[in-house]
Amino acid sequence: MYFTDRGIEELEKRRGEEEVSFEWLAEQLRTFVDLNPDFEVPVERLATWLARLDDEDEE
Q: How far apart are the C-alpha atoms of 30 and 10, rounded to whole Å?
């Protein structure tokens, strides 16, 4: 198990039943980066990865 899995598991446990929009998620990511600028690159990579999940050209 990766260290980050603990945070993912907590997210799933606490909010797993909720439904959110990508608009809401994007706003939360922006707020997180504003408060934690050192995480700008990893958040950008995650957002780009999520945005391109269905791109067949990337495979």
A: 21
Q: What is the pTM of this model?
A: 0.78
Buried b (16+ CB within 10 A) or exposed e, 10-39: eeeeeeeeeeeeeeeeeeebeeebeeeeee
**Higher-confidence position of 56 and 19:** 19
Average pLDDT over residues 38-58: 91
Residue 43: pLDDT above 90? yes
**CA 31, CA 36: separation in Å to the nearest integer?**
8
d(CA 44, CA 55): 17
CA distance 53 to 30: 20
**Quick one: DSSP state of residue 21?**
-
